[in-house]
Design a protein that fits this description.
Layout (H helix, E strand, L loop, with lengths): L9 E4 L4 H12 L4 E5 L7 E2 L2 E4 L2 H8 L3 E4 L3 H13 L4 E4 L6 H14 L2 E3 L5 E4 L3 E4 L8 E8 L2 H13 L4 E6 L10 H10 L5 E7 L4 H9 L6 E6 L23 H11 L2 E3 L4 H10 L2
Parallel strand pairs: 1-2, 1-5, 2-4, 5-6, 6-7, 10-11, 10-12, 12-13, 13-14
Antiparallel strand pairs: 3-4, 8-9, 8-11
Helix pairs in contact: 3-4, 6-7, 7-8
């Protein structure tokens, strides 16, 4: 597994909101170590038995937390990320969508400067079924296993994770990198982690039109010893029209599904056109 393990002790920023409450319960039920919540002005509350503090620093000092998952409104997200970084958090999962690009650039650069891993924004989160999840990936599509997943699309993450499970496969770790034009962790950052991970036998990579994240990752895929099975969404998308995510747009012929598929195949990835083909290809390339 990567990014989160048995030593992950997480806080929930925005725990007293509707989404924060709901997903805190889901994460707890999945076995995640949620040790505290943070909502300014709500210190002293409890949510599903989890103590709430006014600041991240208080929560970290009291519970030795090292990870945070954010359920805060977009206008407050940048300040919440800065507070988490300054409070000593090492892994930050930003679920929030519609964060201004300049805010994302600021918080990602600050994270890099301080050596903090940021997942997202606009991500479904991460899950290592053996130890828990940080985010909103439905528990029913997760099962402990040896397939690493990394995806730009939340919905496709759920669909493909479920396709693996019903075909007898489970995940070592599932990572949603987020669908915004700027994210804290990209394909090129996650693939080396899976390559070094002893629990991962193969990687399923889920890309989509727009940007060059998949093409950049191809340079590393060429060096990998583990098989990469790739699926690219948006084959029929017209040029200049945004498809779902802010980052899913083809401009001047760059970022098309066909260009990504070509690059991935040339890098040695096994590219499928249908989701149902993924388990079949995995069976062929890992022999089980």
């Amino acid at each position: 597994m990567i990014l989160m393990d048995e030593n992950t002790r997480a806080i929930v920023q925005g725990i007293t909101g509707r989404q924060g409450r709901f997903h805190t319960k889901e994460m707890l039920d999945f076995g995640t170590k949620i040790v505290a919540g943070v909502t300014p002005g709500k210190g002293g509350w409890e949510v599903h038995g989890v103590p709430v503090y006014d600041t991240v620093r208080e929560a970290v000092e009291e519970h030795d937390a090292n990870a945070s998952v954010l359920f805060v409104p977009a206008p407050a997200a940048k300040d919440a990320v800065y507070e988490a970084i300054d409070g000593g958090i090492e892994l930050i999962v930003v679920i929030t969508e519609h964060i201004p690009v300049h805010d994302t650039l600021d918080m990602v650069n600050y994270g890099i400067k301080r050596g903090v891993r940021i997942i997202g924004p606009n991500t479904p989160g991460i899950a290592s079924p053996k130890v828990g999840k940080l985010g909103i990936i439905p528990s029913r599509v997760l099962k402990e296993g040896h397939i690493g997943m990394v995806s730009r699309s939340g919905t496709l993450t759920y669909e493909i994770a479920n396709e693996l499970v019903v075909n007898g496969y489970g995940q070592s770790t599932c990572v949603g990198i987020g669908g915004d034009p700027v994210v804290g962790t990209d394909f090129i950052d996650v693939l080396p982690l899976f390559e070094r991970d002893e629990d991962t036998d193969a990687v399923v990579m889920i890309g989509e039109i727009g940007g060059s994240s998949e093409e950049v990752a191809c340079e590393y895929i060429k060096k990998m010893s583990k098989p990469v099975v790739a699926y690219i969404a948006g084959i029929s998308a017209p040029e200049g029209k945004r498809m779902g995510h802010a980052g899913a747009i083809i401009e001047r012929g760059v970022g098309t599904a066909e260009s990504k598929i070509k690059a991935l195949r040339e890098a040695g990835a096994y590219v499928v056109r249908r989701i149902s083909e993924i388990p079949k290809v995995l069976r062929e390339v890992i022999g089980k």
